[in-house]
Write a structure and sequence with these properties.
alpha+beta; Glutaredoxin; 12% strand; 200 residues; single chain; globular
């Protein structure tokens, strides 16, 4: 997707976004889940060095805009990872609720059609667009297909109270497990690869 020639994301608009701490503490329902994912995300020394090298390039990423909604699992997992990336790299990060900023969202639709979130948009220090990343890493898409039975149990419309409780517990255990953690790690790797390619 090619970004619009005249983006609504001016430097002034970018500056209006929230910091990550403001976003996390402002979420009454899912702030704790975000915090758990933030604490659970560690950027390795090698990845931190790679990110700093990217930022140091003449056309390197200095700013990150994030579109999100806190109720979305991909967001309460992924946005804390994006915050960790920004911290490790020394990027400025600004966060915007998608549903209050549809004009921004319209520039970064998945396949030109879907309002998938989170979206991370990267800019140079003088606010030139570099690249954007959407929703979740490819590994997550692959593994979600393999976990179709779990999702089917969650979405079953006529669950008994016992089935509903079991499905909820299964999903919480999944979010605390190694596959979910692996998606956080893969997000870091995928974004480094994207920025290396686009800011060369």
């Amino acid at each position: 997707m090619v970004q619009q020639t005249e983006s609504v994301v001016t430097p002034e608009r970018f500056a209006q976004g929230m910091s990550y701490p403001e976003y996390e503490t402002g979420s009454e329902r899912f702030g704790q889940r975000m915090h758990d994912n933030y604490i659970g995300t560690q950027v390795s020394d090698a990845d931190a060095a790679a990110l700093r090298e990217l930022v140091a390039r003449p056309n390197g990423p200095a700013k990150m805009l994030v579109l999100t909604e806190d109720w979305c699992p991909d967001c309460y997992r992924g946005v804390p990872v994006l915050a960790r990336i920004a911290e490790a790299a020394g990027m400025e990060i600004k966060i915007f609720p998608r549903d209050e900023n549809k004009d921004i969202m319209s520039e970064f639709l998945y396949n030109g059609e879907f309002e998938s979130i989170p979206v991370a948009v990267f800019y140079t220090s003088d606010h030139r667009y570099i690249a954007h990343w959407i929703e979740r890493p490819a590994l997550a898409n692959q593994q979600m297909r393999e976990m179709a039975p779990m999702y089917a149990r969650m979405r079953k419309p006529d669950k008994t109270p016992e089935e509903a409780e079991a499905a909820k517990r299964e999903y919480i255990d999944f979010q605390n497990g190694p596959i979910w953690a692996g998606w956080r790690t893969e997000t870091i790797k995928e974004i480094i690869h994207l920025l290396d390619e686009k800011s060369a």
